[in-house]
Write a structure and sequence with these properties.
YtxH domain-containing protein, single chain, Desiccation-related_membrane, membrane, 2 helices, mainly alpha, YtxH
Length: 129
């Protein structure tokens, strides 16, 4: 059996011939007059062209916004990241003594809670006897 290959020329010819036959059949079998069909076709083509123009404009807007975002991300983000890192380092440096004091106080509180807990256990043991 012979292997059939796809031919773009044959496909295009078939597409053109099919379009002509379909268009002719549509005109012959259309329930509307030729003028009405032409007007509808013109309106449809104009609507499609308007839609394509809007689509082209929308694509251009998206591309322009993409360029703006890329520019801003390349310029502002590094600056802000450096500034933020600097602020964090300054905060850590300025608050390191305070944090150490807070940790020390938390340790004292934790020890006191443990002592209190031990005392409560002793009291409960004495009552149980």
């Amino acid at each position: 059996m012979a292997k059939k290959s796809f031919s773009s020329k044959k496909f295009i010819k078939g597409l053109v011939v099919g379009g002509i036959i379909g268009g002719g059949a549509a005109l012959l079998l259309a329930p509307k007059s030729g003028k009405e069909t032409q007007d509808e076709l013109k309106n449809s083509i104009n609507d499609t062209l308007d839609l394509l123009k809007k689509f082209k404009t929308d694509i251009a807007d998206v591309q322009e916004n993409q360029k703006k975002v890329a520019y801003l991300s390349q310029t502002l983000l590094p600056e802000n990241a450096q500034s933020l890192e600097k602020n964090i380092d300054q905060f850590k440096f300025a608050n390191a003594p305070r944090i150490a004091i807070i940790k020390e106080q938390l340790n004292k509180i934790s020890k006191e809670i443990n002592r209190f807990d031990d005392k409560m256990n002793e009291i409960e043991e004495k009552r149980a006897r």
